[in-house]
Amino acid sequence: MAVITAAAWRENLDAGDISSEALVGASLARIRDLDGNYGAILARDEVRSLALARQADARLRAGERGPVLGLPVVLKDNLHWQGLPLTCGSRILGDYRAPYDATVVARLLAAGAVPVAKAAMDEFAMGSSGEFSAFGPTRNPWDPTRVPGGSSSGSAVAVAAGYAPLALGSDTGGSVRLPAAFCNVTALKPTYGGLSRHGLTAMASSLDQVGPLARSAEDLALAFQVMAGRDPLDSTSIDLPDLARLASLQPATLRGLRIGLPAEYFGEGLEPGVRACLEAAIRSFTDQGAEVQEVRLPHTHYAIDTYYLVCTSEVSSNLSRFDGVRYGSRVAADTLPALIAQTRDAGLGDEVKRRILLGTFCLSKGSYDAFYLKALKARTLITRDFQAAFAEVDVLLTPVSPGVAFPLGDRTQDPLAMYLADAFTVPTSLAGLPCLAMPAGLSTGLPVGIQLVGPICSDVRLLEIAHAFQSLTSHHLALPPEPPRSSHGL
Ligand code: GLN
């Protein structure tokens, strides 16, 4: 049974046409049957998920209604779900189990959503392809010889392959948007602070955001409205405006909408098939009366360098907590420094080590001013570019990535090539802006995503604009080919 949209299941659950227990059971069965093909799932607790589904059914029978009540959801494995293993795709966490629920998970649970699995990811969310997990690569349902995009690889595959209509990922520099684009899924990277980070394992704290993934903007709205809102446990969290409009998401009026096309995002590196999908998407908007104009974001070419300086610096600090003393696995040694060094050497993968080394260097005496401080200044310039653009236009429309999903193994030996997949997603992260990635058609049989970017706190508006686009088009409903049932179920 392929899951279609959360909104459709919502209606079926409310009408009593299906129970949450049946829906969650189907979700678990699909994971068991199919995931041998993709490697998108790391852990499950079927007994617990089914018990939660029965609780949701009782609430439904008692007449309660709610946006996510009874709906299955898959959680990226850097989000704490109490009692379940939490690996972050790394060996260093060993058999660590989450001692509490992340705020977003707690809010979903309180609203009656049913977590069904923890999803695979690049180690500690560092990666763009889903290949940097200590537990093996994840594959793209559209073509299993290709990457699904990362780092929320398993979350995007879970939606694309119909394991669940909703998933949570995290996005530091593109990690829900890139896999969404590669797998034909819709995803929101909220305004920085829009969702609580409490219980999200930190990668780069000034950039990290939790982001929902689903088939449509309408489905994202179901999950987003129950998770958003200030959390005393995350001092950077904020109350976004207009959340009440999510209760019944209406398509935005496109007539008169001023759409900016940043010249820097439409340069030579863009694959022709991606460009064609973008042009078609732009026509869908202009046919409805939207106005398109070119804008300039002149500091864009500093974004990758800036991101990888800020990100690695914060990584070097955040990841120091994984030392074999308090969490997870430990390599015994005679002295404490040896214990820490050997535990980290054995427990962390190459990409994580590369970033810790680079970040430690950036923050060291002598390098701090030359690298880290300069990066912070460039970050301000990049942010100002966007502020200037939003004086002229309401929203920006860009590609998510210059190309479609690339073959597994293509970029694992070339960090720079891997980093360049994020060229269109990191600038907005540095500026803390809300971004929405959504399907815009296929190129050589593979999904192409477009990105909507709005000013700070325009998250609800972005969902409304995306909903308008998805009411006019059906790209988001295209499904990957149905795979063989896996011979070695989970
Ligand atoms: N691909 C980017 C990186 O490797 C972004 C990762 C993310 O958003 N978590 O840093």
Characterize the structure shown.
- The protein has 490 residues and is of the alpha/beta class.
- It has a single domain (6-262, 390-477), classed as Amidase signature (AS) domain (Amidase signature (AS) enzymes, Alpha-Beta Complex).
- 38% of the residues lie in helices and 13% in strands.
- Strands 1-3-2-4-6-5-10-11-9-7-8 form an eleven-stranded mixed beta sheet, with helices on both faces.
- Strand 10 and strand 11 (446-453) form a beta hairpin.
- Helix 2 (20-38) packs antiparallel against helix 3 (46-61).
- The chain is globular, with a radius of gyration of 21 Å.
- It starts with 5 loop residues before the first helix and ends in an 18-residue tail after the last helix.
- 57% of the residues are buried.
- It binds glutamine.
- Glutamine is lined by residues 125-128, 151, 171-175, 203, 311, 422.
In the predicted model, the low-confidence regions spanning at least 5 consecutive residues are none
What oligomerization state is this entry in?
single chain
Shape: globular
Count of extended strands: 11
Structural class: alpha/beta
Bound molecules: glutamine
Mean pLDDT: 96
CATH superfamily: Amidase signature (AS) domain
Question: Total number of helical segments?
Answer: 15
Question: How many structurally independent domains?
Answer: 1
**Annotated CATH topology:** Amidase signature (AS) enzymes
Radius of gyration, taken over Cα atoms and rounded to an integer in Å: 21 Å
Sheet with most strands: strand arrangement = 1-3-2-4-6-5-10-11-9-7-8
CATH class: Alpha Beta
Q: Please indicate the percent range of residues in DSSP E strands (runs of 2 or more).
A: 5-15%
Q: Largest beta sheet, briefly? A: 11 strands, mixed
| Architecture per CATH nomenclature, i.e. the level-2 architecture | Alpha-Beta Complex
